[in-house]
Please model this.
Amino acid sequence: MYIINFMRRYFFAIFCCWAIVLPAAPLQAQCNHDDNSDAWYSWFKGYENQLVDYFPLSERDEMIIGDSVHLEMAKQFKLSDKYERQSYLDGIVKRLSPHVERENIRYQIHVIDENRTLNAFSIAGGHLYITSKMVEWTESEDELAFVIAHEMAHADQKHGIRKVQKVLLGETLGEAYLGKGWGEYGKLAGQMANAAPYGQTDEYEADREGALLASKAGYDPRKGLRFFEKMGSKENYDMFEKIVRSHPYSAERLKCLDIYLREELKR
Ligand SMILES: [Zn+2]
Model:
């Protein structure tokens, strides 16, 4: 009984710290492993992951959730069912897939018929999305493979499914500690923890893991640098905007990726 009470307090204490610490996240999102604030934030993020993983969802559940979210995506975006380079994209996904950590997740890439917007994203359960503009805009298969590998890395590193787990966790703790009806507020807290800027550290992780994935599949991950170079030329740095952005600036990502490739991957 004592252990159970201790565990309950432990969960609740971390959940409270979570709400207090999270607003600092966008300022902390960096890639320099020697930086104290980054080390501190990574430490905290590790605990956060540990906490949400006490309420796990199986990979099967993750794919079921992913399939239902995909139905919503299909309503929201114009998905192309006859894209002329679909088999080319499928080939890249097939080449990258054997090198992911969670081998049971099935990856499928969907093309959004959009010739003006550069975008790619993924959801839990292995559904990947890319606009036709993005496919055409990349200059080589290696560069495109880096973009796709980045999206696969988000799913492989559980970035999407942990967002679902956070909402479930907030709901469960709200109900358990504050009483009936408070689950909705807990759910809201979980949704707030998923707000855009708090994903910046996930972006750095997906850049590193995506580069590793591309490299294992025999692609040149240094072509990812070219991608950020081009994206960076479209962005103007603004310190205040940085705090609310979902993604770090491309110039910062380029610098981080270059350090990772040279120092860790020796590329
Ligand atoms: Zn991303």
The chain has a mean pLDDT of 87. The CA atoms of residues 99 and 213 lie 6 Å apart. Residues 150, 154, 203, 206 surround zinc ion (CB under 6 Å). The chain has one domain: 2-263.
